[in-house]
Amino acid sequence: EGKNDLDEIIFSIVDQINHGILENFPSLTENIRNDHARLYEMAGAKAVVCSDHAAARSYVSISLSLMPMDRWTSEYEPSLRRSMLLAKSANSFGDLEMAQASLREILANARCIQDKLPAFFLLVTTLIARGEFSESYSTCHDVLTLLGEQIPDSLGPKHVASVIAATSRAVSCIISDADLLKMKEINSERANAIKFYNLMATVSYFIKPEMFAFLVCRSVQLTMREGICNDSILGFVHYSATLVSGNKLVKGIRDASRIGKSAMSCWKKRFHAMHTHSLPHLYDVYHGWVAFYTE
To answer: Buried-most residue among 26, 68, 71, 234 (CB within 10 A)?
Structure first.
């Protein structure tokens, strides 16, 4: 109850503190700085919920400034959490430079790949927004390599065709959404590989289109082999788009329709409640690339 009461007035509290914090900063004890840093983090998190990303960016920046110089050593978890919150709020506000600076700080100081993955994902997103496709592609490549995946630098048409054919055989068992709904959940580490395959495929469409089908098929094959997750659905829809764009024959369109419709139905029934943020991208790919030929 006390926490809820604090949440109701957190903006008033930190705004009052903010009036004198810069002038009094040298005289603040370590305990007071830590308490203030927690309050500013709480205000930043609430501002994000309220979609006030400008305020969130300001509050979290102050929270980080109140932490000790060796914060990545002495206060690792709060440093990681607050730096990621700053990057997200700055990105949502449109301050991509601040977002990238915070993300690169996380990548330089995070202790393990699992702590780095959210920063890598958002970094690639900001790079795409700035039109820096080459770096976004190479970053995805580096992340997937760290996750144990091997990706060739380039592929010839015959190799791509063989990968598509192998994937077609793997998904031939998918008749309807029921086949996807009964699939087991993939573990989190392998789910991250699917996430970055999808992101890399999106980037490759613009700068390395010959790699698009290969990356999409890798995402689908990983799902068929190890289990499904929310990001698997985008992989299936991308695969459907590949079938349609590369083969306008009746069989290609039928397969695209079967896989695409099953994937979209599965997402609505299994993942929609917790992953509504995926809806715009899924609809864009499915209705823009696939449904045009199948519905």
So the answer is: 234
DSSP string for residues in 35-56: HHHHHHHHHHHHHHHTT-HHHH
List b or e across 174-202, with b for residues whose CB sees 16 or more CB atoms inside 10 angstroms.
beebeebeebeebeeebbbbbbbbbbbbb
Name the nearest CA neighbour of 233 among 187, 206, 175, 194: 194
155 phi/psi in degrees, rounded to 5:
-140, 145
Lowest average pLDDT, out of 31-40, 104-113, 177-186, goes to 31-40
Q: Output the pTM of the full model.
A: 0.88
**Predicted confidence (pLDDT) per residue in 133-190, tens digit:** 999 999 999 999 999 999 998 888 899 889 989 999 999 999 999 999 999 999 998 9
In angstroms, the Cα distances linking 24 to 19, 43, 44, 200, 294 are: 10, 20, 21, 48, 66
Q: What DSSP string runs through 152-163?
A: -S---HHHHHHH
- Predicted local distance difference test score (pLDDT) of residue 1: 46
Question: Where does the chain have alpha helices with state H?
Answer: 2-24, 30-49, 53-65, 71-74, 76-93, 96-109, 113-129, 133-146, 157-170, 177-181, 188-207, 209-226, 230-246, 250-266, 279-285, 291-294
Is residue 3 over pLDDT 80? no
pLDDT digits (tens, 9 = 90+) for 174-227: 999 999 999 999 999 899 999 999 999 999 999 999 999 999 999 999 999 999
Residue 295 is classified by DSSP as -
Per the DSSP assignment, residues forming a β-bridge with 185 are 228
Instruction: Compute φ and ψ for 152, nearest 5 degrees.
Output: -70, 155
